[in-house]
Fold:
Amino acid sequence: MKWARANLFGSWPETLAMLGILWLLWKTLPPFIDWAFLDAIWKPDSKTCRAGEGACWGFIVEKYRFILFGTYPYELHWRPALATVILIGLWVFSAFRAFWKPWLALVWVLGLSVIGLLMWGGLFGLRYVENERWGGLILTLLLTTFGIALAFPLGIALALGRRSDMPVIRGLSVGYIELIRGVPLISLLFMASVMLPLFLPAGVTIDKLLRAQIAIILFAAAYLAEVIRGGLQAIPKGQYDAAHALALPFWRRTGLIILPQALRIAVPALVNNFIALFKDTSLVLIIGLFDLLSTVKISLNEPAWTGFGVEAYLFASLVYFVFCAALSKYSKSFEVRR
Amino acid sequence: MIEMVKVSKWFGMFQALTDVDLAVARGEKVVVCGPSGSGKSTLIRLVNRLEAHQAGRVIVDGIELDDDVKKIDTVRREVGMVFQSFNLFPHLTVLQNLTLAPIWVQKVPRKEAEETAMHFLARVRIPEQAAKYPSQLSGGQQQRVAIARALCMKPKLMLFDEPTSALDPEMIKEVLDVMVELAREGMTMMVVTHEMGFARTVADRVVFMDGGRIVEAAPPAEFFSAPKTDRAKLFLSQVLGH
Structure:
C-alpha cells in the first residue's frame, strides 16, 4: 500500500494516469479472460466452436501436430519431435558458461548429426523423408540455428574487413554490406528460389531449403556486421596501442583483445538481431517452405476451420514469444559490466 | 640502443617532428620534457613504431625501422611500453594481462609465464592483486601492473609515455618508486614526464623539446641549474615554480 501510494499515486498526473490504466484494464481484461478461458471450447470440433462464444482452443488441439511438424509423415512425428527437443537441449546446454570448452563444438556436431539422421532417416531402418516435407517448429529452429551459426562469423569477418587497411578487402566488405542491406529479405528469398536455378547449369539443383538458408545467412550477416562494427568502434585506441606494443600479431590481437571487448559491447544489438533473424525465418513461407507460421496459415485454409485465425495466431505468437523472451532474458547476463 | 637521425613526422599538414637527432646508449636513462604539443609523445612512439616516421632514420638495437612488419615485431618484442592511461586489458585479470604476450608472442609455457608474472607483480609490490580485474584496482596499482606487464616480455628497453600524468597525486610516488628501482637495476629507459624530481635523481640526460624539435639536451644538473635557451628557462619556471 505504502509503495503504491509513493510510486503510483504520488502526484495528480500520476494518479490520473493510473486511474486511466485501471479503467482500461477493467474494460478489457475480464472480457478477455471470459473469452480465452471461461467460455473457451477445448473440444476439437468446429461445429461446437462455431456455436460457442469463447475461444476455440479445439482448433489447436486438433491441428497442433500439423502446426508443429508440418507435412512430415504423420506416423513418424516422433522423429521431428525428438529432433526439436534435442535442438532446444543443445541451446540450453550451451547457455551454461561452465560448458564453454572446446568439446562443446563436438557436442554440437554430434547433436546436429543425430538431428539430421532423425529428420532425413534412411539409416538404421528409419524411413527416408526428403526435406521438402520438413516443416513446422523444427524448420524454424533449424533455419535460425544455422542462420546464427554461420551469419555470425561471416558478420565478424565483414566487420573486420570494413575496418581493414587493405582497400580491396574494405571495398568488398562495404559493397557487400550496403548491397544486402539495401534489399528486403523477401526479394533475396525470391531470387534464391526463382532466379538462382536459372543461372545454374542444367542438371545441377540445390534444394529449396538450402537456398532459403543461404539467403537468410547472407542477409543476416550484413546486419550483424554493422552491429559488430559498432562494437569495434567503441574500443579505445589505447587498447590497440597496448596490443601493438606487446607485439601481438593481428589474429591474436583481434581474437584475444579487440573482439572479446567489442562483442560484449554489442550484445544488446546482437540479441536484437538474433531475435529478428528468428522471426524473419517465417518469410520462407512465400517460397513454399512450411515453417511454424506457414503451417498455422495452412491449417486455417481448411473449410471447417476458417475464421479461427485469432486463436491460431495467438498460439503461434506464444511459441515465438517463449523463444524470444528466453533469449532476451539470457542475454541480460552478458551485459553486466565488470 | 636507439639512434634517430634527422627524423621528421607529419600529421596531415601539421609537422609534429622536425629533423630530430637523438641517440640513447645501452643502460642510459633519458627524460624527455617540454610543453604539451611539443612532440614528446610522438617521438617516443616512433621507437616501437606506434607512429611511423616519414623522413630520416630510426634504428633500435641495430634494426632500422621501416614498413617491414618482421622488423617492427622484432623491435616490439624487445621494447616495453607504459602508457599514460595504463591501457590494461579490462576483460582480463591482472595475471592474464601479464601472461598474454609471453604465452602468445614468445610461446612461453603457461606455467612458466605465470611464475614470471608473479615475480614481476611482487617486484611492483602487488602480488595479492593477481586474480583481480584492472577496474578493481586504484590508478597507481593499475600503472604498476602495466609496468609489470611490459617487464614480463624481458625487454631491453623501456618506454614511458607520461606514466604519472593520469594519476592522483598520492599515487604518483608509488609508481615513480618502481621506476627508480628499475633504473637502478640498469634498464635502458626513455621517459616522457613532467616529474622533474624524477629527472633529477634518475636521468643521465634531459631532453627538452619544443615545436617538434629538440631544443636542448644536457645532464640534469646542468639543465636545471643553467638552461641555455629562453624557452627552456620559461618552461622550467612554469614547471618548478609552484
